[in-house]
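Quick sanity check, NitT/TauT family transport system ATP-binding protein:
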Amino acid sequence: MESVRYEAPSVQTVPVIELRGVSKQFLKPTGELHTVLQNINLRIEKGQFVSLVGPTGCGKSTTLNLVAGFEQPTAGSVLSLRSAGTTWRLK
C-alpha cells in the first residue's frame, strides 16, 4: 500500500497582538535614560496562550502597558486588532 502525505495549505494568519522592534526608555530623575526594553519582537495569534515570566524589573509590566496602550514605545510599533479598528469581545 502506498503512503499518501497530506500537507495543509499555507495560511497567513493575522496576529492578535504584535510587537515589532519595540524599545522603551524612561528618563531617570538624574536626567539619564534607562532602557527597559530593547528591540523586542513578539507575535501572538488567535487562540494562543502566552505567559510573560521573568525576574523583577525585566519589563513584563512595561510590555503589558504597551500592549494595553497605556504607554507608547520609544521605538518600534505595537499592533493589535484593537488598533486596526476591531472590537474585542470577551466570552
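Posting the structure with no commentary besides this: The chain has a mean pLDDT of 84.
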